[in-house]
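Thread: quick sanity check before group meeting

JM: Hey all, I'm pulling together slides for Thursday and realized we never actually wrote out the predicted structure for the chain we discussed last week. Dropping the sequence here so it's in one place. If anyone has concerns about the input, flag it before I start.
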Amino acid sequence: MTPILAADALIWTGRSLREGFFMFWETLWPLVLGFGLSGAVQAFVPREQMERVMGDHRLASVFRASGLGMVSSSCSYAATAMAKSLFQKGADFVTAMIFMFASTNLVIELGIVLVILMGWQFAAAEFVGGAVMIVLLALLGGVVLHRRLTETARERLEHGHMAGGHDHQAMVGVSDQRLAALEATSWAKKLTSKAAWADAASYTMADLTMLRNELIIGYVVAGFLTVVVPSHLWNAVFLHGHGVWTSIENVVVGPFIAMLSFVCSIGNVPLAAALWKGGISFGGVISFIFADLITLPLLLIYRKYYGTALTVRLLVLFWAVMATAGLIVEGLASVAGLIPSHRSQAVAPTHFQWNYTTFLNLAFLALFGVLYWLYKHRDRLGGGSGYALDPVCGMQVRTANAPAQSSLAGQTFWFCSDRCRDRFNTEPARFTVGIDGHEALGGGDWSDPVCGMTVGPDAVNRRHHDGRDYAFCAPGCADAFEAEPSRYAPPAPVSPASAASPASPASPASPASPASPADVGDRAEP
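JM (edit): ok, ran it. Output follows.
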């Protein structure tokens, strides 16, 4: 019996992981688009310009935020990162949240998926309901999300006071001087500057790195809940056959199911189709689809961004807005006779197809490759300075405000968190190449000084610098080391006489001078 149960568990696990992977596949290109746009906004858009166009939640700002959201990523994770970037740049908090709602509810790709899986009536309800939610959010947001809380959240972001885990502000890797130079540079020069794009890519990678755990957990848990939990169990919590009370209960419970399901963005449409097939009301399904912005992983992200107090208010406000919009849309659809009488049996495919999603994913994977290359070669392209790699987790850390640092053999290391610093101090030989090269790792192994990966004694990618040998996991790391060995190699021992002499202007210890706007484009060429 035990082998049979073990085999069944493996089968269900495999199906769940497959389901989670294809949810990720459905949202891959919006993720790349959203995080890419977020990085560009952080690097390119001056705070003053953001305050001018989205600095309040009046009618004009609401329209601008809605329009920007409609042409942005539909992924709730990416939309959340983008909204945070807008707010951090000076946008009004309510307006930033309106952008987030528009980005996840008023986008074409979501409407296409709804038409394919559930019918055009649901797509129409999504767009009408999205507009209703934006109106409600604009009316109620200023009351519930008062200025004292939002300004505290803005200071939290500006000073990098994230709750637990990695410090996003320290991970950005663009110095204040470099950021000021970018913001003062003309758009024409920034858009043609390799250095500026390298900085934008660095912001993108910082956002992705910070949210990678939430993304992985969200998709994996969503896959398990979709496969292991039968749809009739979800349906058991919804009322049936009680008239208007059924509609009210369904639109209130719909967001609760979405919150527990972990499913975000377009990925929640297949589960919505299963709930609709099981007999849930039209408004309940719509409010469930709306509620991808209050799934548990996103609530954790809000808490990391804005703090617990503001996150609780966001949850209450979002839930009320989503439920109310679902009820209004159901009423309008009922009056117009648009509620479908046929319950669709369609489910999302869990296999690759040559459709628009696949082609877009391939195109945006190539774009991501370009962004990653820009990020890895930012020094050679003239990008920002003042950062280092955390030797434990590999994150980029701003040396000016790194949460932790440690010294070993005369070399300073910066870390994204105390946890990484403590791991480093416990096993420094595991994460450094050491003063004598590969001997620090023992057993003939080497540590790649660029990425920290352990390399075997038969490594073919080797370089010699300053009397020492180094081994690398791949030609890319070897090339990065060769381009700037002083960044990765341990410093040579310093004599007492030289240590006592003042640092020259070219010394790494000297403060970096602010870059002029003209330097941004000039430094673009390697």
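AS: nice. The radius of gyration is 26 Å. The beta strands are 387-389, 396-398, 404-408, 411-415, 446-447, 454-455, 461-465, 468-472.
JM: adding both to the slides.
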